[in-house]
Design a protein that fits this description.
Strand content of chain A: 25-35%
Low-confidence stretches of chain A: none
Oligomer: heterodimer
Largest sheet of chain B: 6 strands, mixed
Mean pLDDT of chain B: 93
Order of helices and strands of chain A: EEEHEEHEHHHHHEHEHEEHH
Structural class of chain A: alpha/beta
Shape of chain B: globular
Helix content of chain B: 25-40%
Shape of chain A: globular
Largest interface: A-B, 37 and 32 residues
Largest sheet of chain A: 6 strands, mixed
Low-confidence stretches of chain B: none
Structural class of chain B: alpha/beta
Helix content of chain A: 40-55%
Radius of gyration of chain A: 19 Å
Number of helices of chain B: 10
Radius of gyration of chain B: 18 Å
Strand order of the largest sheet of chain B: 6-7-8-3-9-10
Distance between the termini of chain A: 35 Å
Strand order of the largest sheet of chain A: 6-7-8-3-9-10
Distance between the termini of chain B: 45 Å
Strand content of chain B: 15-25%
């Protein structure tokens, strides 16, 4: 079953077209990856899905989430979807988190907003979430402010906020780009277990083909606002046709040739 | 092999009391290609900055040609050891043309000769045509800026290039080009390289030795093949395991 259906999505700022005729589906439990360079339009497409584009953006086409059309919909309709049906986690948790609010209150906010929970219940749920996203001493850490945590801890909080209201689709936009590789590995594992555990759908956006290939079963390659190629992950690596998509794959392979040789025998 | 540059028992303590380097030694022989890897905060940048003579040290010495930096000929040292930094947007002076930027070390270090000619030579080395000399950094793409940063480093004919995350701010396809360029220049000019990177794939392409840092210490070092195939330190193993793998083609 299709959870998110995007058709001919175009986002422009005046004459500048940043997302150009983009179409894709994400099924229930699906894992969709978007790869592209900076400026390729991947983040703008995701902001369009969430209905939080910067002022001045004109959107056309169709975004249907669980059967509900979002393009041109009232803010009430969008707000009901954002955070509730679709959760989002961003690249830089230090800027995505409210610096003045304890993290338990930030995790609890969507629960109070969408599920009418009392502050006390939301606080308790926030502590549970801190434990679920693998933070040690959840009671203590829940009362901290974002700047009192490491980057990896902050991204765990970002995940807890995105998932607290039990969305059905999680959009993760470069969620590990700002992190060290070993921390990235931890967060990707956590993401795997949370997505699989709750049967969530996932859209994973990154400039790093290795990371997207690990997380997604289908991949769209974006360039200059367009999807230039879209295939199941394995198939993309075997028979991409678009020259840019091929160049990206070739580059990723060439980039790791020496490492694979040094690590011995890995193809 | 001749040791050109050596860090011996470096200790750097920040004013906050945090120890950024804790008894760190690293030796750079002629023609060596050393990758310094580790996570943010491990002390990689502090180490190479110290080796450039840019960090006040609580203990230890940096030796250039066997002589302590405090006692050696500063100009000779600066000429021989040149840096390339991560973000060319901030490391290039926005008010100067590319030609002036590249000629600056030649002037500061009192190097004789036709500077304009030298500028054209090193621009050619990084595959930029001579017209780039008249342009300003903001007119250039990220990849072109990093080429200029490399040209500047090459201008005084150094023996050692110290590159701190030279490609991590670039898009992947551009990153490839710059890695290939560095590889080619190092080989052609027989330079030594100290490369700081969080990306093991880049280190594997450019380096033959590796030093793994954690919490201000070098936890493991040696020939890259030995270290990657048989890591002795558990953190090194974790670093290797964390590299995302590409699907193999059937």
């Amino acid at each position: 079953m299709t959870l998110l259906e995007v058709r001919n999505l175009t986002v422009r700022f005046g004459d500048n077209i940043v997302v150009n005729d983009v179409s894709f589906d994400v099924g229930a439990g699906g894992r969709f990856g978007i790869i592209g360079e900076s400026g390729s339009g991947k983040t703008m497409a995701m902001l369009a899905v969430l209905g939080v584009l910067p002022i001045g953006a004109e959107v056309s086409g169709s975004i249907r989430c669980d059967g509900v059309e979002l393009v041109g919909a009232d803010e009430d309709v969008r707000r009901a979807v954002r955070g509730r049906t679709i959760g989002m986690v961003f690249q830089e948790p230090l800027t995505a988190l409210n610096p003045l609010m304890r993290v338990d209150r930030q995790i609890g906010w969507p629960l109070r907003l969408h599920h009418g929970m009392s502050r006390r219940d939301a606080d308790a749920a926030a502590v549970e979430w801190c434990a679920r996203v693998g933070l040690d001493e959840p009671e203590r850490i829940a009362r901290r402010l974002p700047h009192e945590m490491s980057g990896g801890q902050r991204q765990r909080i970002g995940l807890a906020i995105a998932l607290a209201a039990k969305p059905r689709l999680l959009i993760a936009d470069e969620p590990t780009t700002a992190l060290d590789v070993t921390v990235q590995d931890d967060i990707l594992r956590l993401l795997d277990s949370l997505v699989d555990g709750d049967g969530l759908s996932l859209i994973f956006v990154s400039h790093d083909l290795g990371v997207v290939a690990r997380m997604a079963r289908d991949i769209a390659v974006m360039r200059s606002g367009r999807i230039v190629e879209q295939r199941p992950t394995g198939e993309l690596f075997e028979r991409a046709e678009d020259p840019y998509a091929k160049a990206l794959i070739e580059s990723a392979r060439r980039g790791t040739v020496d490492l694979r040789r040094l690590l011995r025998g890995e193809s | 092999m001749t040791v050109l540059l050596e860090a011996r028992g470096l200790r750097r303590v920040h004013r906050s009391g945090r120890t950024a380097l804790d008894d760190v030694s690293l030796s750079v022989a002629a023609g060596a290609r050393i990758g310094v890897v580790g996570e943010s905060g491990a002390g990689k940048s502090t180490l190479v900055r110290a080796m450039l003579g840019l960090e006040p040290l609580a203990a230890g010495d940096v030796l250039f040609g066997g002589t302590r930096l405090s006692q050696c000929d500063t100009r000779a040292f600066r000429r021989a050891v040149q840096p390339v930094f991560q973000d060319p947007r901030s490391s290039l002076n926005p008010r100067l043309t590319v030609g002036r930027i590249i000629a600056e070390p030649l002037e500061c270090l009192g190097i004789d000769g036709d500077h304009a000619l030298r500028v054209r030579e090193v621009l050619a080395d990084v595959a930029l045509d001579a017209s780039f000399a008249a342009r300003y950094p903001h007119e250039l793409s990220g990849g072109q800026r990093q080429r200029v940063a490399i040209a500047r480093a090459l201008a005084p004919s150094p023996q050692i290039l110290i590159a701190d995350e030279p490609v991590s701010a670039l898009d992947v396809l551009i990153r490839d080009e710059i890695v290939a360029l560095i590889d080619d220049l190092i080989a052609r000019r027989n330079l030594s390289l100290v490369l700081v990177s969080h990306d093991l794939a880049v280190v594997a392409r450019l380096c033959t030795e590796i030093a793994v840092m954690r919490d201000g210490r070098v936890v493991e070092s040696g020939p890259i093949e030995r270290v990657l195939q048989n890591p002795e330190n558990s953190f090194t193993g974790r670093l290797i395991d964390a590299v995302p793998r590409l699907p193999s083609v059937g």
